[in-house]
Amino acid sequence: MNDGGNLRDYKKMIEDYKKVYDFFEDEESKVIYRSFVMYRLFKSPEYFWDSIKYILNKHNRDDVVTNISNRKIVLFGAGCAAEEMLEMFEKHNISVAYCVDNNSDKWGRKLHNCDIVSPQVLLEDEEAPFVIITVSCYKVNYQIKEQLLNWKINPDRVFSWFDIVGKMYIETEIAPIKQNDVFVDGGCFDGETAIDFHNVIPGGVKKIYAYEPDPINMEKCRDALRHLDNVIMVNAGVFSRSGEVYFNASAGESSAISEYGKDKISVRTIDVESPDATFIKLDIEGSELEALRGASETIKRNKPRLAISIYHKPEDLLELPLYLKELLPSYKFYLRHYSMAYMECVLFAVVE
To answer: Looking at the 3D structure of the chain, how many domains does it have?
Structure first.
């Protein structure tokens, strides 16, 4: 009986994946979705290879793939994104000479059998390797690229994924940003995304709600956004109800609502705090569905454009699109991917 139940559950899951796959409006979204589903099912980053090739081809950068095997490859940034890429490259017989990191605590260690070394090693490497920046945060990614260019490393030898895909959440052809927009930044972190949205439009957007529960991150937001007079700072998380929840405040960018958290934080709903929202961005480490539930009336009434992180939990690949499609059937969906690893995938929902 249990085996039969498991089989029925598996068949239902596959049917739901197919249903969501058909929601997407363009081929790029479908390629990305297929890659993420395969990764979640089989836990191997090799399934991102198809989406990487597709995106590079779309932006006329096939050379990165076609010439990669003939180059000496170095990864800059020895974090989880680099680890995923090393595993993916290994599956496709692409060797990496070494990993570089600015953090001296990592020097002398290994990442997926690859040595982690000082940037000085790269500077002294007479073979002039091809450097792939493997940091998923675009702000740090750009800082590393500037660091390399300041060292007079040939720009043709430096590859940043963000040079191809642009800034995360900013897809003006899919989800236009308008002057009268009321922008909700759920998970404001350091304020950079709010600034990016504001700067798309000459004179900026109408209003910004900046939600950030972590007190340290909140101070970063206040500092970054202090020059804007249209920002409402909300020192709380975005959730399906107002009140208090447990929170892990020690994870920096990945600080999140968690039943295992030691701290309690305030949470608010978009329906109550930001009922005039016309564009909602959520990157809240796995609480996106709860936040959307707390925005259901706003979504049905205002039909806001959405940019929602969809990679934090495996079930998000199904639950977020299915919930939104049921809530507002007129939504059209797109996926965009802002990393060469499993992170930084964003679901865009728009009413055209």
So the answer is: 2
* Residue 76 tokens, joined: 């800059």
Residue 24 domain-assigned (yes or no):
no
The answer on 330 and 209 residing in a single domain is yes
Q: What is the pLDDT of residue 265?
A: 84
Q: What's the predicted TM-score (pTM) here?
A: 0.91
Query: Based on the domain organization, do 122 and 252 belong to the same domain?
Result: no
Say if residue 105 is in the same domain as residue 189.
Answer: no
Please check whether residue 3 lies inside any domain of the structure.
no
What was the pLDDT predicted at 252? Answer: 44
Residues 210 and 343 in one domain: yes
Q: Are residues 136 and 225 both part of a single domain?
A: no
Q: Which domain holds residue 128?
A: 63-165
Taking alpha carbons only, the member of 340, 328, 246 closest to residue 349 is 328
Q: Virtual CA dihedral for 253, 259, 264, 266, nearest 10 degrees?
A: 80
Q: Examine the domain organization and report whether 227 and 158 are in the same domain.
A: no
pLDDT of 341: 82
Inter-residue contact 169 to 281 (CB < 8 Å)? yes
310 forms beta bridges with none
In angstroms, how far is CA 102 from the centroid of its own chain?
22
Answer whether residue 303 is part of any domain.
yes
Q: Which residues of the chain have pLDDT under 50?
A: 1, 251-255
